[in-house]
Amino acid sequence: MNQQEARFLINTLPFDLKAKANGTVEHKTTFSMEACEFSVFETHRAEKDIRLKFDNLTFTAMLRGKKSMKLDNKTNYFDYLPGESVLVAPGETMVIDFPEADEQPSQCITLSLSAAYVEETLQFLNLAQQKVTDDAWAMQPEQFYLFNNEPLVAATQNIMRVAMEDNKQKDLMVDFALKELLVRLMQTQGRQLVQSSSFLNKSDSRLAFAINYIRQNLHQKLSLEKIAKMAYLSKSNFFKLFKQELGLSPNEFITRERIGQAKQLLKLQRSIKEVAYQTGFADANYFIKTFKAMVGLTPRTYQMQVAV
What we know:
The protein is an alpha+beta fold and 308 residues long. Helix content is 45%, strand content 19%. It folds into two domains: 17-193, Jelly Rolls; 199-307, Homeodomain-like (Arc Repressor Mutant, subunit A, Orthogonal Bundle), CATH 1.10.10.60.
């Protein structure tokens, strides 16, 4: 989408009552497995300059509250909120402030992944699930600040459930859950990467070509067969490319782009009928139905809200 996607929330966990009573700063509960270490961090007291360093690639996600954080020697401070995740590279240090923890305790999870496991999983994917293009499955280190989407949240909640349960087959189930999470992370990185001008300007990328063409022609009927042919792909490989890279079908991507453009036009107080026409919907009724299904509001209600 041309603007940030909606951010989906991960279910919160019950607070540790002992940590809550003591007003602990970064109380940590850890569950260790062969391939990873899953931890829950809670903070019940305002504090500054707390440093966390991870030896392995670590997926972190906010569940409650607010942090102000940076990656040492890499970023400036930014607000870290529920609905967002950060990938921390091996050896990097998170520097964290908790400005509101006295009134609103924070809760965050981390999943530290064995380097050997990540490498083995990427090798497995590159052998068993080769991409349509010549690109290999790989994590994108520059895409470390993520907005959670529905599939990523579902995969995260699954690994949380497996990690915290008492089960003799835990490591086996963690293996399946981790593989899905890694794929969802790479697809989430892909969704955010396609927003960057550096990606969309790549003349050698079939996906970049297809996305540029779609965005430039949202106002008209789009033929997937035509776009696939222009990208030198069969229709089946065209669908596979989108699914592999973004976790979306081409039709889902087009609908999201149209709704994203519609939001921008509605902010300009264009009529519903005009917005439907300019974003390529066959009629206003179908546009209203699709918009409400994706946004949770009718176009008119959304327009009234953004006008306030």
